[in-house]
Amino acid sequence: MSDRTVSASSASASSSSVAASSAPADDLGQSARRGALFIPLAKLWFLVAALLLQLLLPRALGSAALYGVWTLVSSWLSTFNNVMITATIQAVAYFAAGGPSAVEQAKKTALKMNLLIGGGSATLFFLLAPLIASFEHDAELTSQLQLGSLIILGYSFYAVFVGAANGARQFHEQAGLDITFATMRTGLVLVAALLLHSTLAAVGGWVLAALLILILSALLVGLPKATEGEPISVRTMLGFGAWLALYLMGLNALMFMDGWWLKRLYTEAQTGLSPVEVKRTVDAVVGIYGAAQTVARLPYQLIVAVTFVVFPLLSAPAVKADRERTQRYISATLRYSLIAILGLVSALGVRPQATLRLLFPPEYMVGGPALAILLGAYVCFSLLSIVGTITNSLGRTVHTALMGLLTVILSALSVYTSIRYSLGLGHQPLRAAALGLLAGMGGGLVIGLVYLWQTLRATLPMKTLLRTGLALGVVLGLGQFWPAAGSAGLLGSKIGTILCAGLSGVVYLVILLLSKELSLKELALLRRERPQGPSLDA
What we know:
Helix content: over 70%
Distance between the termini: 31 Å
């Protein structure tokens, strides 16, 4: 297919062109500044709320085994949820980029589309719940997964209103909804878990939060209004959303497949124990690995804000028509993203066992070696997701989906092989699961960067890769000289862990300044909410 697959009807494409040419010039710089202010703030709160949920939930549930069950249930749910909400947001934002009339038409079409897609996905997940539980060798998962199908249904319609706000570049509305939902979900899940010490109750709190935010988003953004202009057909939006959903399904499966394989293969490896003992043992290991996953995903959760700003900007006709400008946007986005990701990785990964001891109960420290590897895997994953957002925003949804599927296949094979090999040697499989994920995600990132270079002559600057790699290496070396977590004295305490993380961030930044990867002038521009440097000026 051509790169214009997403513009399935000539009428839709022509109406966008007319809107772009007749309306006043779109101030993309101002939109970028608004996005750089509101969306990262919302994502920062979303990150804090999600982290609080994951840190407090093990204590509210009362055991690593119950937390392991929650990790499994939420991972299967999130695979469908994330696909539904992200695909809908990006589809609506893409078709809403033409102006106020396009926003209303996009909302109307997306609501019709999700009567079929959202309802169908929720029903399918409900019916698949017993099969998922069978794959994981745990029948108790069925009822919790089936209850979670209501979350998928609520998310599908909520995403329509968030996408409309994003496409209209009303970033303050999108940010407000993100903040509100993150707060409600964290609060309701924790209260339910604390009162009943049940993962089923925790899922129920999540369901209630999803339904409440749907109502609030409809009130804030508004139902579709009657407007002039060419309507957008459901088929046209599906032409965009179908390939996008396929890509996102693969991307989200990447985030969770290591935990799925770990639960299944480790259960199969347990012999000589009763079913109850096997479940408790395996669920506890999955819970510990889930804690490492939670920390390792923090850089990715922060960088998701970039995708919400980049997508509507690169989707704008003025940018898509200017190849040189597109190249500058892509290179700068990848550069700043890598700098930000590795800055956070340097703080979290300098002493991985100490990081887990700081954030979770002491028994979770055994996941430290897995965390160190998972941080590397999620650096690759974060950049891969940005590459996918870039290619989707430029209309290359088919190619993006194929790259995503290839990465999923690589990762599934590498994770499975790594865990099986480790268990065959009688080793504990946490580190093996992480190594398999790193191999698969790293391979996918290489594929994505090569594609960007061959098609657009834009990629991650090599000097940035070398300088940030040097800075990270120096920081990780610092951790080798720091006292071990739990040792006597200030430096071995939890306060010492915080001090080491802060010092690591400072060292990382200083090395980037000394190597001239960053300058004080550039930092001042970023502080004034300009997301890109002077090279991005038209």
